[in-house]
Amino acid sequence: HALRLLAAALLLQGAAPIIAQPQYDDRFVLRQPLQNSTFNHWKTSGLAIFLKDKLVLTPELSDKAGLLYAKNTFNLRDFELEVDLSIHNKQSSSFPKGSFRLYVLRDNPMRRASDFAHGLDGQFDGFQLLVREGAVRNTDTALKNAPKRLHQISGLVQDEEFNDVLGKQEPQCELGFEDQTIQLKSKGGELSVYLRDSETSSQNAKLCFSIKLPDEDFFSEDHDTYLFLSGYSGQGLPNEHLVHQIRFKDLKHLHDGEEVDSEEDRRVFSGKAKDVLRKGAIKTQDEFTVEGYNRQLVRHNKIYSQLVSDFISNSEQIVNILTSLPHHEVVAQMAEEADSINSRFTLLNEQFTKYEGDIGWYRDYIHKVMAERNELRQQGDLNNKGFAEQQSIMANVNKINTMFDSYIDIMSRNHLLEEINSFDTQVKQFDKQMVDKDEQLLAKFDANNAQEEFLSKIEMQNLFTQQVRKIMNKQLRSLDKDVKLMFGQSSILGHTTKFVDIIMYLSIAFLGVFGYQ
C-alpha cells in the first residue's frame, strides 16, 4: 500500500511513476535448500520425496509415478509460473519413454499419483502441459553430441465437461534436454509456453507454443485454480525427474502482500525440535509429571518395539535376498553380455539412421526426376521423347473412344434383340395360358364334391352299344357291297369259286350273331 501511495504522489507532482516489478507469491514457490514453509505450501504423493536441495518427483526406477501439488489455490487471470526441471538417467540415454505433466486446473480431480501420471483419463477441467520423453527421432545430427531422440512438448485445454476446446489441433514443439526451465505465462486470455536453459535469463526464452483460451476469464477470480506436477519414469529403461525450484508471479499485483512467509518460515529446514516434522511429536497438553513421564515411556517402548521388529524383519529379508543373488562371476558375465547387446543395438541404430538418410535421399531424387519429366511433358516440345509418347498414347485412346462410339451407335439401331424379347414374351404368355387350362381341368377331376358332368354307367353302356352298332352297320354295309360284288362273280364263276361263297355265308352269319348281341 505504501508503494501505491508513493506512485500516486509522484503522478500528482508530474514525475514519472515507479512501475512495481512482479514479486513471487510464497504460497507457490519452491526454493532450495528446503525451507520451513515448504511443507506448509507443498505436498507429495506416490514416490515423490523432498530432499534437502531438490525434489525427486520420480526415482530412476521402472514404471514409477510421483506427484507434487500445491496445498493452496489462487484466483488470477494473469500469472506466470516457472519450473526448473531435470530429466535424465545414468546411461545419459534419450530412449526412455517417460513423461512429465504440469496441470493448471479449475477443479481438483482428487485422484492418485498414478492417475495424474497417465493424464487422468482425459477427465480434467483446465490446462495440461505434457512432455513426452524420447517421442521423436532427432533428424538434425550435425552436432557431435546431439541426442538421438527429442522430447515432444504439447498442450491441451479442456472445459468443465472435459471437451477439448482446441479441437483436433494440438500445439506442440520438440526439444532434447536434460535441464530446462519451463515458463508458463497466462495474460489477456492467451496461454504461452516458453523454454530456456536454467542458466539463461527469461528474456532469452524461446516460445514453444501459444494457445488462445476460450475467453479471457478462463482463469479468473471467480473460481479456484489448482496446481499439480506429475512424473512417470517409463517402462524398461527409466528416467529420473527432479524439480529444483518453482517460481510464481502475480503479474497484476492483485494479491501482493497476502500469504507472505515470515522470516522464521524462510529459514533453511533443520533438525531442531521446532521443525515442522517434529511439531506433531510434542503435545501442548503433556504434563511434566511422573504420570506424563510414564505415558511417554510406554509410547517410547511401543515405538521402539515396532522399530526393532521391522528392523529385524528387514535384515532377514536382506540376507535372504543376498543368498539368492547369483555369484559375482555370473553377474560380471551378465554385465559383459549386456554391454555387448547394448553395443549391437547402438550399431543397429546407427545403421538404421544411415538407412533412413539413404531412403530420404533416394525419395528426394525420385521426386526431382518425376518433377522434371512432368515439367518437360507440360512444356509441349515434340522433340521430347516423353511428350511425343504421351501424344501418341492420347491419339490411340481417342481412336479407341471413336470405335466404341460407333459400336454403341450400331447396337442402338439393331432391333433384332427387341424382336427376340417380344417373341419370347408372347411364347411365355401362351404357354402360361395352356398351363392354366390344364390346371383347371385337373382341379375339376380331383375335386371330391365336384358335380358329375358325364353320363352314368348304364347310359355309357347304351351309348357304347349304339356306337358299336353304328360302326358295325357301317362296316356291314361295306362288306355287303363286297359280298354282293363277290356273289355276282360267284354266280358267273360259281363252278370255280365255291370257297368264296362259303366265306361269304360265314361272314353274314357272324355279323348277324354279333349284331344281335
What does this entry show, briefly?
Residues 1-20 form the signal peptide. This protein is α+β, with helices and mostly antiparallel strands.
What do you see in this structure?
With 517 residues, the protein is an alpha+beta fold. 44% of the residues lie in helices and 20% in strands. The chain has four domains: 22-279, Sandwich (Jelly Rolls), CATH 2.60.120; 283-318; 416-448; 457-516. It has helices at 2-12, 38-41, 113-117, 276-279, 290-324, 328-379, 385-413, 416-446, 457-492, 498-516, and strands at residues 42-46, 49-50, 55-58, 65-70, 79-88, 99-105, 126-137, 149-158, 172-175, 179-187, 190-196, 206-212, 226-232, 240-250. The strands form two sheets. A seven-stranded antiparallel sheet has the order 1-4-13-6-7-8-9. Strands 2-3-14-5-10-11-12 form a seven-stranded antiparallel sheet, with no helix packed on it. β2 (49-50) and β3 (55-58) form a beta hairpin. It is elongated, with a radius of gyration of 55 Å. Mean pLDDT is 77; it is low at 1-21, 273-278 and 490-496.
Spell out the key features of this protein.
517 residues, alpha+beta, Jelly Rolls, 7-stranded antiparallel β-sheet, 14 strands, elongated, disordered N terminus
